[in-house]
From TrEMBL:
InterPro entries: Fatty_acid_hydroxylase. This is Sterol desaturase family protein. It comes from the Bacteria. It comes from Agaribacillus aureus. Pfam families: FA_hydroxylase (PF04116). Residues 9-70 form the Fatty acid hydroxylase domain.
Amino acid sequence: MIPVSLDIYLSISLVNNVGEHVGFEIIPKKVMDNPILKYTNVVTFHDLHHTDFHVNFGAYFNIWDRVMRTMHKDLKPTFTKIHDR
């Protein structure tokens, strides 16, 4: 069971890491307004972290960034602007 769990985790981690570094937003716009999915990270979240290393630390979820007030203030406007192009 442990090797299978490790394989699943590593596969999810690989897909997440590649997805965060593709250079364009691949997450649908409606995710940002979903009451549950808005706590998952989008590509823009990670891109903003590379722009400003003092914000957006979460790897999979942004819950702690919300709690600790380290979430980039322009995340939603930037995400929306990218999708409106």
